[in-house]
Amino acid sequence: MKISERDCLQAQTNAQAVRAAGHAVSARYDARHGRVVVGLNTGVLLTIPVDLLEGLAGAARADLSEIEISPAGTGLHWPRLDADSYVPALL
Fold first, then answer.
1. Which residue among 5, 8, 68, 80 is least packed, with the fewest CB closer than 10 Å?
2. What is the helix (H) or strand (E) element at residue 10, kind and residue range?
3. Tell me: the pLDDT tens digits for 61-75?
């Protein structure tokens, strides 16, 4: 399958629309309450119980505390757990 310039432009437009809806600018593990706190570019704070995120239930505090945000801000990654979450799906 050949990818055209038009296909690339459409993909970029779609990605920009996803980011405009809200993308992560910060993420941390709140051990006291057992949740992940994600700050969005819109000023919204999402708090998600760890047990609701695939691959995180029962993980050690140190493993949960190391969170990486993808360059586009649409993904969260826990390298020690090899777990990922798609930020737009959390919304």
1. 5
2. helix 5-20
3. 999 999 999 998 999
